[in-house]
Inverse folding.
């Protein structure tokens, strides 16, 4: 049995001892036999206590509790039913695909962890039930495209990574878990102080981490006095996986001056560079060895990586009467939406006894005959749908002679890179080029890669800079996209040096005035805009133009196509 698997089994045993006190475990692992085996060990350690699995997309009435529809219809009066969280009281709730939890579900789970109870106020009922549960969040995401909500992860004592454990590492007998009686008993106040200092030196900002570590130390003590060995083991299990940096003395191995434990700067504020006391220093040394070797590298890479594209998450949210993703229900007429049968019956159920008429039941009917359900128009509930409109990125490219031909090539490369993402993001890309005396739509909104390449390859360069005509063409195309139900984003690539007016007559003064007027019209249209200054040495001309159109200004004098596409993606 590998040490990593033995540590995973130890975490499972501790989480099963006090699920609510520990909060639970954040498990990073894809579906497979290793994860299933770990969950089997966890269920075995729980014994007879409940272990429930949270269905993906669970409704609030099933999660928190609500009206028991069948019992209510039979009794003619509201009858409550328990939710999944109340059913798991004293046990554990397993949450698959936790990285895809909605913010609402994550908030409800966090509130249940904090209160140890669930309160349901819906369908005209109010009920409170104990729910002292622990959570097992299964993080199945690949890379950093999606993450478990921090509101939940911060409330869990343990973080476990099973991705590096092979099936062969799980064989063998489990190590003896007899509690070591090494070291002297630690005072609770001293142990908490040492844990807080160790967390600060590991870059852990949350105060829940040292408190969770203290709870784990008490579990390791098994009801006896908490020893130094218990505190060190708890720090390795709780603090090490949360570390965001190495301790300062490990990053810069320099001799630090000796500082007395009770010493402080003259102004009375704590000295962050002061040497740790012996207890906290011991915890830092213990956790340093337990920090995964690639943890800090992954954190650094994730902090500097551009956000990954997500399907259907770019366009603006919009209401849809009959298509899209369900987003709850609301009272309404069947002429404007689709009927939600169960919510309609729930709304009608509490009123059945009042609505029942004596003549509705024949005189010769048995006493237990079911009455017909009476539903009125006020009971109708229709499904609310929500969908995101597709985003169309419109590139307005300065193809004049003043704009370097290299910039035109970079714009073509950026368009191709963003178009490759359109298959995942459900986006479209359009291209407007302006040069000479006017502007033209070189590429209509499309996500066809071959068509885009043909249009880009045939785009020539040279001539004057009719900046106003280019902005007008991009504005008109963006309005057309909005009228068709899409969300336009205009990206203007220019150096801002206009020299051709709207009329096609050369002249910098008139051209600049027309460009500012066109920029004001674009701003009045309330269209999201990005201006990329392509000049070798950015001037105030393009910045003033960006202010006039309400655009985000990005000076990129030496960027390539990849950097340009990353800048556009982050600004968008």
């Amino acid at each position: 049995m590998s040490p990593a698997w033995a540590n995973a089994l130890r975490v499972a045993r501790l989480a099963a001892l006090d699920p609510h006190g520990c909060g639970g475990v954040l498990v990073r692992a894809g579906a497979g036999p290793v994860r299933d085996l770990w969950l089997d060990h966890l269920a075995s350690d729980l014994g007879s206590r409940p272990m429930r699995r949270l269905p993906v997309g669970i409704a609030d009435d099933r999660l928190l509790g609500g009206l028991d529809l069948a019992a209510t219809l039979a009794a003619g009066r509201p009858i409550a039913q328990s939710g999944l969280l109340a059913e798991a009281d004293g046990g554990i709730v397993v949450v698959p695909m936790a990285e895809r939890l909605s913010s609402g579900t994550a908030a409800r789970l966090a509130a249940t962890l904090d209160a140890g109870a669930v309160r349901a106020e819906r369908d005209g009922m109010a009920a409170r039930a104990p729910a002292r549960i622990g959570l097992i969040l299964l993080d199945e995401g690949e890379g950093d495209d999606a993450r478990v909500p921090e509101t939940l992860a911060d409330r869990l004592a343990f973080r476990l990574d099973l991705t590096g454990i092979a099936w062969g590492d799980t064989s063998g007998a489990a190590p003896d878990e007899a509690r070591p009686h090494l070291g002297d008993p630690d005072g609770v106040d001293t142990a908490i102080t040492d844990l807080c200092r160790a967390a600060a030196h590991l870059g852990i900002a949350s105060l829940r981490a040292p408190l969770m570590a203290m709870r784990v130390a008490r579990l390791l003590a098994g009801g006896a006095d908490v020893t130094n060995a218990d505190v060190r083991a708890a720090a390795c299990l709780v603090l090490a996986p949360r570390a965001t940096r190495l301790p300062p003395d490990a990053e810069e191995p320099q001799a630090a001056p000796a500082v007395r434990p009770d010493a402080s700067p003259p102004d009375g504020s704590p000295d962050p560079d002061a040497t740790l006391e012996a207890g906290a220093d011991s915890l830092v040394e213990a956790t340093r060895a337990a920090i995964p070797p690639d943890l800090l590298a992954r954190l650094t890479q994730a902090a500097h990586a551009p956000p990954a594209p997500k399907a259907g998450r770019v366009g603006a949210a919009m209401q849809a009467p009959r298509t899209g993703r369900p987003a709850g229900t609301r009272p309404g007429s069947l002429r404007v939406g689709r009927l939600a049968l169960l919510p309609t019956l729930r709304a009608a159920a509490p009123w059945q006894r009042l609505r029942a008429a004596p003549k509705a039941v024949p005189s010769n009917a048995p006493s237990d005959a079911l009455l017909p359900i009476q539903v009125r128009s006020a009971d109708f509930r229709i499904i609310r749908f929500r969908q995101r409109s597709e985003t169309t990125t419109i590139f307005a490219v300065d193809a004049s002679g003043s704009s370097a031909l290299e910039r035109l090539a970079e714009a073509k490369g950026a368009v191709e890179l963003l178009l490759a993402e359109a298959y995942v993001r459900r986006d479209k890309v359009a291209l407007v080029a302006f040069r000479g005396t006017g502007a033209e739509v070189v590429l209509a909104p499309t996500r066809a890669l071959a068509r885009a390449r043909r249009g880009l390859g045939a785009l020539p360069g040279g001539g004057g800079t009719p900046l106003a005509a280019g902005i007008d063409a991009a504005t008109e195309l963006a309005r057309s996209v909005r009228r068709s139900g899409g969300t336009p984003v205009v990206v203007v690539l220019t150096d801002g040096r206009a020299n051709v007016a709207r009329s096609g007559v050369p002249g910098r003064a008139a051209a600049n005035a027309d460009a500012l007027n066109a920029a004001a019209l674009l701003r009045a249209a309330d269209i999201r805009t990005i201006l990329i200054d392509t000049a070798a040495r950015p001037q105030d001309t393009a910045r003033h133009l960006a202010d006039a159109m309400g655009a985000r200004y990005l000076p990129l004098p030496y960027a390539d196509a990849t950097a340009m596409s990353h800048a556009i993606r982050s600004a968008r």
